[in-house]
């Protein structure tokens, strides 16, 4: 009897927590927090309710873990895109390109945080505080990256790095909204290009075309 009990406790999990969280995240992302039921999460993850509770807790806890999973992936993607070894324009281009690919996924579902967490933050002070911290943390990261580019002479040293970072992050959120309402990739790219030109200045060929148009 003791040996059987030890064997039961020692069995490996029949699910991968990260895979299950990704599937739960997709379910929330598709329908939003309020419209996603435990039955929806059970179907998405392939886990019954008792297994879900045992692994992650109630619906609120599952959502919270899914959001943290999304943030972890996002921070990793941002770190790669904004690699300090790259020129700022190239880094921000990758920053926006990665975002556009995510936002256009799942029939243009936009940003998980913007699409699901903002609504819940009205009733959840802890979530609101965490979202505030996440947003301003991103602004600090982008500010630091822009300041580095200024020190290298890539962009105007007199510009306010913090203001440019706010623009960069605001455009990121606007891209998420555009994708959610069905905006095509070409238009999303145009929005990103406008942000790049504002932050980094026009490309040399764009400057030449403008000069030729004036002459």
Question: How does this structure look, described?
Answer:
The protein has 215 residues and is mostly helical. Helices cover 78% and strands 0% of the residues. It contains eleven helices and no strands. It has helices at residues 2-9, 17-31, 38-45, 49-56, 59-81, 88-108, 112-121, 125-151, 161-180, 185-200, 204-214. The radius of gyration is 22 Å and the shape is elongated. The relative contact order is 0.10.
Strand percentage: under 5%
Count of distinct strands: 0
Structural class, from helix and strand content? mainly alpha
Unreliable stretches: 1-12
Compute the CA-based radius of gyration. Answer: 22 Å
Protein traits:
single chain; 215 residues; mainly alpha; 11 helices; disordered N terminus
Task: Please outline the helices and strands.
Layout: H1 2-9, H2 17-31, H3 38-45, H4 49-56, H5 59-81, H6 88-108, H7 112-121, H8 125-151, H9 161-180, H10 185-200, H11 204-214
Question: How would you summarize this macromolecular structure in one to three sentences?
Answer:
With 215 residues, the protein is mainly alpha-helical.
């Amino acid at each position: 009897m003791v040996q059987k009990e030890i064997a039961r406790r020692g069995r490996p999990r029949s699910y991968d927590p990260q895979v299950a969280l990704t599937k739960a995240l997709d379910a929330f992302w598709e329908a939003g927090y309020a419209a996603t039921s435990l039955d929806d999460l059970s179907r998405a993850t392939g886990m019954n309710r008792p297994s879900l509770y045992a692994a992650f807790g109630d619906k609120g806890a599952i959502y919270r873990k899914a959001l943290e999973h999304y943030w972890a992936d996002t921070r990793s993607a941002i770190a790669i895109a904004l690699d300090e070894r790259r020129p700022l324009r190239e880094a921000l281009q990758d920053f926006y390109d990665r975002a556009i690919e995510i936002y256009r996924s799942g029939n243009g579902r936009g940003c998980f945080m913007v699409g699901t967490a903002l609504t819940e933050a009205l009733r959840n002070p802890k979530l609101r505080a965490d979202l505030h911290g996440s947003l301003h943390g991103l602004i600090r990261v982008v500010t630091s990256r822009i300041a580095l580019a200024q020190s290298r002479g890539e962009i105007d040293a007199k510009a306010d790095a913090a203001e440019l970072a706010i623009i960069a992050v605001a455009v990121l959120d606007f891209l998420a909204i555009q994708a959610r309402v069905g905006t095509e990739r070409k238009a999303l790219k145009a929005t990103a290009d406008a942000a790049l030109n504002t932050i980094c200045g026009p490309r040399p060929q764009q400057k030449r075309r403008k000069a030729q148009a004036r002459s």
